[in-house]
Amino acid sequence: MNTPPSSEHIQRFKQDGYLVFDFALDDSLLEAIKRGVYPLYDEKFRNGEVPTTRVQDVWREVEAARVLARQPNIMAALEQLFGSAALPFQTLNFPVGTQQLPHSDTIHFNSKPRGYMAGAGWHWKISTPTMAR
Q: Total domain count for the chain?
């Protein structure tokens, strides 16, 4: 999404708690993240011994992940949706979807004041980002 969220987007976000955007991300950036994160996945996953794994805070080791986490158009969209500056603080990478049911992670982390926490997720194959509260 190269244009700011419309008033309709903002209303939908307030009503539903999530939005799906196309941020027109550069495929080479996403490929660089995949290449950088794969060696960080658990060896048991890479050997096919477990079906999935995850790596937290890849942004600390993979420059492309840091660039994605701080994309200006994403930061601007979050600022417009929440009415305050965004502060990226964590990346969590999965090689395959976890198939989790809808859930809340507020027991692990949250914002002060409450309600200003957002997650942005990308499905690598179709590159459709989803932003959720």
A: 1
Is 95 part of a structural domain of the chain?
no
CA pair distance 122, 131, nearest whole angstrom: 9
Which range marks the domain in which residue 12 is found? Answer: 7-90+117-132
Beta strands in 17-112 (DSSP E): 18-20, 55-56, 92-93
Residue type present at position 61:
E
pTM of the model: 0.77
Dist CA 84 CA 73 (whole Å): 15
Q: What is the pLDDT of residues 6-44, one digit of tens each?
A: 899 889 988 998 888 788 888 899 889 989 999 999 999
- Please, what's the b/e burial string for 63-100 (b: 16 or more CB within 10 A of its CB; e: otherwise)? ebbeebbebeebeebbeebbeeebebeebebebeeeee
Query: Using CA atoms, how far apart are residues 77 and 81, in angstroms rounded to an integer?
Result: 6
